[in-house]
Amino acid sequence: MDQGGLRSKFILWSLTAWVLVKWHNILVDNNYERMKRLPAACKILVAVLQPRSWDLPLSKLGPYTTPPVPAANPFLRKHAGSQALGGRAWLKAQPTAVPARRLILHLLDARREAISALAVYRHWGKEEKMLIDLGATFPAV
């Protein structure tokens, strides 16, 4: 085979590889965020459609409303008042796993309350007027 034929095949394969890489990156970048939202939307839909009696009772919601105490670092000295647990003790201290569909409505209620509480402090002036002109809506106080 002559050098011209090899060179043209090399250029053709290089160009094809470059086009495929660009095409793949465009597809991944455009669809990745949407694909991440799909399972979340399904969980919210299932939670909204299920009977309210299937939700986690408010009396059992306590352990899920506060972040867990971080695990103890085995490479640091323990302080006298330290509450951090390490290893299996830390794992046993965690609340049991609950399906997301049982917690989502509580989360949405908490978000609604937080938005209402923050709406009291909404005094932005020019920025707020600009957002309203662009079509933004704000919750009623």
Keywords:
single chain, mainly alpha, 141 residues
Structural class: mainly alpha
Order of helices and strands: HHHH
What can be said about the biggest beta sheet? none
Roughly how many Å apart are the termini?
A: 79 Å
Q: How many DSSP-defined strands?
A: 0
What gross morphology would you assign?
Answer: extended
Relative strand content: under 5%
Per-chain topology:
Blueprint: H1 3-49, H2 87-93, H3 100-119, H4 126-133
Helix pairs in contact: 1-3
Notes on the structure:
This protein has 141 residues and is mainly α. The chain has one domain (3-65, 87-133). The protein is 58% helix and 0% strand. It is built from four helices and no strands. The chain has helices spanning 3-49, 87-93, 100-119, 126-133. α1 crosses α3 (100-119). The longest helix has 47 residues, at 3-49. It is extended and about 80 Å long. The model has no long low-confidence stretch (mean pLDDT 81).
Q: Briefly, what is this?
A:
The chain is mainly alpha-helical and about 140 residues long. The protein has helices spanning about 5-50, 85-95, 100-120, 125-135.
